Amino acid sequence: MSPRAIRWTIIAGVLVLWEVLPRAGLVPVLFLPPLTTTLSVAVTEWRSYGAALAVTLSQVMVALLFAVGGGILVGAIVGGVARMRQVLLPVFSSLYAVPLVVLYPVFTAWFGIGSEAKIAFASVYGFFPTMLSTAAGIQTIDPNLMLTARSMGATPVQRLFRVILPAAIPTVLAGLRLGGALVIIGVVVAEMLISSAGIGYLITSSRTVLNSPHVFAGVLLVLLIAIGFDLAMRLLEKRCAAWSGAGRARPGASDVRPAEA
């Protein structure tokens, strides 16, 4: 069987077990409601779940902009400047190891309990992997490429878009994939802790009254968001594949000589 067929077989098996195990009484319905019951709840109450999904998606999109934009910008600066890399990279690496969820009360104290706190928390949550991957990607650029670009008279902006970013694209996208996933987690976790709207809030409010079908309906929506983000990243990687090859070292690249004026 092909890897794709194996993946679909595993997914189908999980869905079948999700339906059969509770129906057969092998798993308490309180712990795992049947799949059809969960889907029925999501369809019946699509208005409330749709409104919650819109709130969560809007916050995820804004947090992604801050996490990705800030992560790539700071990562490019830290990775491209040797002095800043030596001073700041160990600091950012240490901060990345801190469980940021324990700092969420600080965000609520600074920004209140509205959307601002959730967006700020999720942005910081996804900032570190994007920044660290960008800095690591820039450090792996072949120095001969930069030397050749300078000798040909390339401006800093041209070197950024023609050499640095294309060469760092693979690692930047890897950090973006992880950072985006953490942004989604950050928003949902923040909604579960202190919020009055969003998918995380629906999951928490349903959990407090032991309404398992509603809880798992919310979990399915979170999974759909994660799957949608992963598919978008796969498409972006395919689009950037040709561009990233422009900045990679080629055999004999060090022998390239600048064109004569």
The CATH architecture category equals Orthogonal Bundle
What's the number of domains? 1
Let me know the average pLDDT.
Answer: 79
Judged by helices, strands and strand pairing, the structural class is mainly alpha
User: Can you tell me the CATH superfamily?
Assistant: MetI-like
Main sheet specs: none
Report the span from N to C terminus: 58 Å
Q: Count of DSSP helices?
A: 10
Please describe what this structure looks like:
This protein is mainly α and 261 residues long. It has a single domain, classed as MetI-like fold. The chain is 78% helix and 0% strand. The chain contains 10 helices and no strands.
Give the helix/strand layout:
Layout: H1 3-23, H2 35-44, H3 46-80, H4 82-96, H5 104-111, H6 115-139, H7 143-151, H8 156-193, H9 199-208, H10 212-244
Helix pairs in contact: 2-10, 3-4, 3-6, 3-8, 3-9, 4-6, 5-6, 6-8, 8-9, 8-10, 9-10
